[in-house]
Amino acid sequence: MPQQKDIVKIAIQMPGAYPQLIQLDQKKPLSAVIKEVCDGWNLPGSENYALQYADGVQMYITESNRLDIKNGCILRLTKAPGRCAEDLFKGIQSSDAGVRCDSLKELASVSTDVTFAQEFISRDGHLLLVKIVEDSNESNVIMTHTLTGFMELMDHGIVSWENLSSVFIKKIAGFVNAKSTDASIQQVCLDILESMVLSSHSLFLQVKQEITMERLIAHLQVTNQQIQTKAMALLMALLQTAGDLDRKDMFDFLTKKNVRQYIYKNIIHSSGSVQDEMAHYLYVLQSVTLNLQEPRMRTPLDCCSQEQRDILHGLRQAAFETESENSLSHERRRSLCAKEFRKLGFSNNSNPGQDLSRTPPGLLALDTMYYFATRYPDAYSRFVLENSSREDKHECPFARSSIQLTLILCEILRIGEPPSETGSDYHPIFFSQDRLMEELFCVCIQLLNKTWKEMRATQEDFDKVMQVVREQITRTLSSKPTSLELFKNKVNALNYSEILKLRQTERLHQEETLAPPVLELKERLKPELLELIRQQRLNRLCQGTMFRKISSRRRQDKLWYCRLSPNHKMLHYGDVEEDTENPPIETLQEKIPVADIKGLLTGKDCPHMKENKGKQNKEVLDLAFSITYDVEEYSLNFIAPSRTDFCLWTDGLSVLLGREMSSESMRSELEILLSMEIKLRLLDLENVPIPDNAPVVPKPPSNFNFCYDFSQTEQ
C-alpha cells in the first residue's frame, strides 16, 4: 500500500477523449503509469506515448523530473519524444515544401524540451538543419523555422558550437551582412552569432573576421527593436570576448562613429522588456569600456621607467617656474626637486614614485594627474600654487589628493569589476563624454580643493574631506546627469553645507522610521550618555591645554597654560615656556574660582575680538572664547589651538556653569554613542555566554620593529 505522500492527484487529457482523473503513484515506474492511461482509452503501443504538461512550458515528464508534479496538475498524453523526433526527421526531408515547412515549424516549438532535443540530435537531426542552411535553397519562412529550431537545439549544450563548419558560419554571417535579408532571419542569425562568440575564442575570431562593424552598427539604427537588441547583444559579446587591444580598437571605432550617443538616445524610445534588455547592454558597454583602464590601475609605477619618471618631472615643471636645472650641481638639483615634489603634495618627496606604488590606483593616478596638467594647465597651476604657498597647515596636497580621488572614482565607476549578468545601472554621462574617467577627475579634483577650503581642513582632516567628496560625487551621479557640464554644475552646487543638511535630513527621517520602542530606548539612554560626555569634558579641562597669546602685532610669541583643579572649584593658569609639557598645577601662578565665573562668550562677542574688530580672520574668530568673572568686569580670553579644543573647553565651561553643552562635537559624539548603545542593546545574545570579567590584555611585544617610521617620509 503506497503512502499518502507518494500519491499525486492529477488530470490527463487527450484530444477527442474525456479527461482521466488518476492518482499518480510516484513509486510506480512511469512506463507502467503511461500503460494504464493508454489502457483507459484503449490505445495500443503505450511505448509510443509520453506525458507532458498541458499548460505553461509543455515539458515532457521523465523519471528525473516527475517529482515536480503537484496535486491538481493537468497533463497531456502525446507522442513519445523518440517517435516525435523520428516523424519530424522524416518530415524535414520530404519533397513537399508544405510538409517541410510544417515539420520545421513544429521542430522550432518542441526543441525547447531537452528530452526531445536529445532524441533529435541522436539521429543527427542538427546536421540536417546545418545542411539546409549551407545549401540556402529554401524560402525565407522555412529558413526562419530552420534557424530557430537549430538555435533551440544548440541552447541545451548537447552539441559543441565548435563542431560547426566554416561554411555554416559564413552563411550565418552572410545573412547578417546582407542588406535585403528577411528581418526574422537576421534576428535569429544575430542570436546564433552571439552564442558562437561567447562559446570560444576561436569562434570569436571567425565571427569578428566575417562580421563588419559598419554592418553591425547599421543594425543598431533600424526601426525594428528586436533587431536593435540582438545587434546590441552581439556587439557586447564581441567587446567582452575581445582582448585588450581588439577591445580598444572596437571602442575607438564606436567613439569615432558616435555610436555610444546614438545607442543611448535610442533606448529612450524603446519600451517594455526591450528597454530593460537594452539598459543591461548599455551597462555592459559602459563596464567593458571603463575596464580598459584596469591594466593601468593594477600596475605600480616602475622607478626604472624613464618615460614614467619624465611624466613625474613634467608635473613638477608644469607647476613651478624654476631656474635652469642644467646649470645646477647634482646635490642642488636633487634638493630643489625634493622641495618642489613636497609642494606638489607627494609624501615621499625624495622618491615620489613610491607614492604611486600602491595598486589600485597605480599608474592610473599618474595618468589622471598628467591629463589634468596638460588638458587644463591654468587650473592645474592655480591649484598647486595656491596650496604650496600656504603656511597655515591648511594646504591641500595635490598629489596625495589625486591618488586617493583616482581610487574613489575607480570604486564608484567599478573599474576592475566584470559586468554582472543582470546589471542595468549605467551612467548617461558615459554616452555623451569621451575619456569619462579623466574628465571626471579634472572636475572632481577642483571640487576637492573647493570642499577642502569650505571645511577649513588640515592634513589631519584628509580622510574626512575624501569622504565628503565621495558623497558629493555619488549623490550627483545618482541624479543621472546627461553631460559633463551638467555634472559639473550639480556637483559644485552640492557644497559642504548642503551635504551636512542632507545628512541631517536623512538622519531625522531615519529616526522617524524607527519603531516606537527604539525611540523610547533612545530617549532613556540620552541622560546617561550626556553625563558620560560631561565627565569626559571636565576630565579634559583637568588635564589642561596650552594656549597662545596673540599680541596687537599678531605675533604668536607667548604661551600660557590653563587647567581645572581636580575638585572642579578653581581654574589655574599662567605663562609657560615653549618646551613645557603638562606643567604641574602648583606652577601656575594665577587662579579664578569657578564660583566667580559669570559668563561664557564665543567668537566676535569676546572682548579680545572686539578690541581688534576688523583685523581678525574668520579662522581666529571660530577658535576664540572668553570667560567673564567678578561681576563681569574682568575676562580671561582664549584662542583654542584647534576646533576640537574649542569644543572641549566651551562644553566643559558650560558644564561648570550649569548650562547645556552645545558644540557640534558633542552632538556628533552623542549620536555615535547612542547608535552604538542601541545596536548593542538590540543584539540577539540568546545562548551567547557573556563573561563577567573583561578579557586579559596580552603582554606587549618584545620589540616594535614592525612599526613603520613615518618620519622618514617627511624628510
Describe this structure in words.
The protein is of the alpha+beta class and 715 residues long. The chain folds into 4 domains: 7-79, Phosphatidylinositol 3-kinase Catalytic Subunit, Chain A, domain 1 (Ubiquitin-like (UB roll)), CATH 3.10.20; 83-275, Leucine-rich Repeat Variant (Alpha Horseshoe); 298-322 and 329-507, no CATH class; 537-660, PH-domain like (Roll). It contains 30 helices and 11 strands. A hairpin with a 5-residue loop joins strand 6 and strand 7 (570-576). Helix 8 packs antiparallel against helix 9. The model is unreliable at 711-715 (pLDDT under 50).
Helix and strand layout, with pairings?
Layout: E1 7-13, E2 20-25, H1 30-40, E3 49-53, E4 74-79, H2 81-92, H3 97-110, H4 114-122, H5 125-135, H6 140-154, H7 166-177, H8 183-199, H9 201-210, H10 213-220, H11 225-241, H12 244-256, H13 259-268, H14 272-290, H15 294-297, H16 306-319, H17 330-344, H18 363-375, H19 377-388, H20 398-413, H21 436-454, H22 462-478, H23 484-493, H24 496-513, H25 516-543, E5 545-549, E6 558-564, E7 570-576, E8 590-593, E9 597-602, H26 607-610, H27 618-623, E10 624-629, E11 634-639, H28 643-656, H29 664-681, H30 711-714
